[in-house]
Amino acid sequence: MIPMESTNSTTTKHILNITKPSASRVALAKSDTPDALQKLCQEYWTWHFDESLSEAVRLLLSTELGWETMSQLTTPPVGEIISPLGYALAHEDKGIRDAALQVLDATVHIPAGVAYIGEECAPLEVDGFEIGVYSVTNAQYYRFLQDTGHTPPQDWTNGIYPTNKGDHPVVWVTSEDAETYARYVGGRLPTFSEWQYAARGTDDRLFPWGYEVDRPRCNTAELGAGTTTPVVSFRDGMSPFGCYDMVGNVWEWTDTPYDDEGNFRVACGGAWYYNHDYSTCISYDFFSNGYAEFVIGFRIAW
Question: Is 255 inside any structural domain?
Answer without folding.
Answer: yes
